[in-house]
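Retro notes (design track)

What went well: tokenization of the new backbones is finally stable.
What didn't: we kept losing track of which sequence belonged to which structure.
Fix going forward: every design gets posted as structure first, then sequence, in one message. First example under the new rule, 290 residues:
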């Protein structure tokens, strides 16, 4: 029996719910594991040099929403080195900073972004920012980790040109990197050198690592518990960099600094940046783990 087309959105939502549940459970287990370990404080210089990236800015999705200028402002005010955010498209070919394909989770409206013009989308979610607005406000001040979401680029020549123009004031690899869970999206980013491109791994760390090495990308990003020391060392020998997420605790921060992780992504980036400014001593104990 053929599936009813009307069932597809429901099935897609169910898959996303299951995937979110699996990822959340894995993250909780990883957090418990890392805080159960005693980790020595890194040398002050190494800790101070840690490059912390605020995942979607400093937000709580109640008073300050993720992926908004206010969330990025808060990260900047906290002295965080970089900000990570997502790029999607509106119906009138505006690259906007938003994670989900639709506005349901944050705005309570089941409308897809690519079916709305920018003004319409902002009528439902006023804090919605464009890529150009983020670049104007934070480009050159914070390192921009820009995740290109996997979606159809039906006007890819135009879209590539729009992205290139928005990022033209910045230096690729020095001021920003372009990331994606689907490395196929890099085909639309020909304006950026390969050293500015970073595939994101979830469970497929080995595949993403090999891809980055084979194609000469700038490196890759993955979960802190899945990116092993041998993989990290292999990329460093090839002059590539590696980022990990999602680090939440002092012990997790110390562990990744000791390992030589290049970028540390976190939903608690402001708190980790504050730890990096401390003068560390001793071991990261129970009171310091949060």
């Amino acid at each position: 029996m053929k599936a009813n087309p009307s069932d597809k959105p429901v099935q897609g939502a169910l898959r996303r719910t299951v995937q979110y549940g699996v990822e959340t459970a894995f993250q909780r287990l990883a957090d418990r594991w890392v805080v159960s370990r005693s980790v020595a404080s890194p040398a002050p210089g190494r800790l101070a040099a840690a490059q912390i990236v605020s995942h979607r800015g400093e937000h709580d999705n109640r008073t300050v929403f993720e992926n908004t200028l206010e969330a990025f402002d808060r990260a900047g005010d906290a002295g965080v080195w970089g900000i990570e955010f997502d790029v999607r498209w509106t119906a009138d070919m505006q690259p906007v900073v938003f994670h989900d394909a639709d506005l349901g989770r944050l705005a309570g409206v089941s409308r897809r972004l690519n079916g709305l013009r920018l003004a319409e989308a902002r009528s439902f979610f006023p804090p919605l920012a464009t890529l150009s607005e983020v670049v104007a406000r934070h480009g050159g001040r914070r390192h921009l980790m820009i995740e290109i979401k996997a979606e159809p680029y039906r006007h890819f020549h135009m879209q590539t040109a729009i992205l290139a123009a928005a990022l033209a004031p910045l230096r690729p690899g020095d001021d920003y990197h372009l990331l994606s869970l689907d490395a196929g999206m890099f085909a639309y980013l020909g304006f950026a050198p390969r050293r500015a491109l970073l595939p994101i791994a979830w469970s497929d760390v080995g595949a993403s690592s090999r891809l980055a090495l084979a194609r000469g990308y700038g490196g890759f990003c993955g979960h802190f518990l899945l990116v092993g020391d041998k993989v990290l060392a292999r990329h460093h020998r090839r002059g590539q960099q590696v980022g990990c997420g999602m680090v939440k605790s002092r012990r997790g921060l110390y562990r990744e600094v000791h390992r030589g992780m290049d970028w540390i992504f976190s939903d608690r980036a402001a708190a980790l940046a504050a730890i990096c400014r401390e003068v560390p001593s001793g071991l990261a104990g129970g009171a310091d783990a949060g």
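Added context from the reviewer: The longest helix spans residues 8-35.
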